[in-house]
Design goal:
Length: about 300
């Protein structure tokens, strides 16, 4: 029986302590090959720690990680050769030229830099000068080119668009989509929620070392309360909607009411069909609203378990 393709990343019960501080609390995560996967969380949530364990830059306190079917510790050298890695704060040899730095990274990876010229053109970077003369944005472009130039099967990118102007950000997004279409797995962390919303197939939220949610962005939005503002032809008594499952009136008077919808739109639509509606506005929640809602829900749950009201 065919078990199907192996996951690009498979994390099981991963735990990491720094002294007595618990940085990762038995997390589980699986990323499919060819997927663009977003990893979100505030500073100190555990994003960079997870990435460093994946690449065997630090060792876990417990649990296991497999990358492209290989154990992250036993096969770490092989994994690094198959991974394009952009750290959150990339370092360079400032006395080298950008081109010499890219050549050094190519030799270290063991893979031919088949995408270098394309990337330099798309990211609008001239690598001929010494890196000491580069601006912050140029250094970020150089680091990205170094991570992407060998077209590896896995890209692990920590805050990839830091310091890039909007046009270059869009060019990078286009390149990453093309890479995913070729079968490359893209795993990246970001604080730019609009970027994750635009790029990702799925997203994981991590908070205080725990995975809060993993799902497709559309499914995460479906878990939120959705505000719907309705304008009626005539004044309506809010109490008329008191018995409708999955909705409640949160604001309004006269002929305009705002509803909170929690279990799909069907109940509201049927209730509205009995009246004349002149306008209806439903704004889908942004990823930022989803993000904050999940964090707040998780915090309340943790407080309840701890007996904090």
């Amino acid at each position: 029986m065919d078990a199907g393709p192996i996951p690009a990343i498979q994390i099981q019960s991963l735990t990491k302590y720094y002294g007595s501080t618990l940085a990762l609390d038995s997390i589980d995560l699986e990323v499919s090959q060819g997927e663009i996967f977003g990893f979100l969380g505030p500073n100190g949530a555990g994003k960079s720690t997870t990435i460093r364990v994946m690449l065997d830059l630090i060792r876990p306190s417990g649990g296991s990680v497999k990358v492209l079917g290989r154990d992250s510790r036993a096969d770490s050298i092989r994994i690094r050769g198959m991974t394009g890695y952009l750290p959150g704060e990339a370092s360079h040899y400032d006395q080298l030229s950008g081109r010499a730095m890219l050549g050094l990274l190519e030799s270290l990876s063991g893979r031919t830099a088949v995408r270098r010229d394309e990337l330099l053109q798309r990211l609008d970077l001239d690598p001929s000068a010494r890196i000491a003369r580069f601006s912050r944005g140029m250094k970020q472009k150089l680091a990205l080119t170094g991570a992407l130039q060998s077209d590896p099967p896995l890209l692990v990118l920590d805050e990839p668009t830091t310091g890039l102007d909007p046009l270059i950000q869009q060019e990078l997004h286009g390149y990453l989509r093309e890479a995913a279409d070729r079968g490359t797995t893209v795993f990246f962390s970001s604080h730019v929620l609009s970027e994750v919303e635009e790029l990702c197939d799925r997203v994981a939220f991590i908070r205080e070392g725990k995975i809060v949610a993993v799902d497709r962005i559309a499914e995460l939005r479906n878990r939120l309360v959705k505000p719907v503002e309705v304008e009626f032809a005539d004044p309506v008594d809010p109490a008329a909607f008191a018995g409708v499952d999955g909705i409640s009136v949160t604001a309004g008077e006269g002929s305009r009411l705002t509803f909170a919808v929690t279990t799909g739109m069907d109940g509201l639509v049927k209730a509205l069909a009995e009246r004349t509606v002149t306008d209806l506005v439903s704004v889908p929640p942004s990823l930022e609203e989803t993000f904050l809602h999940l964090y707040e829900s998780d915090r309340r749950g943790a407080d309840k378990e701890a007996g904090i009201e």
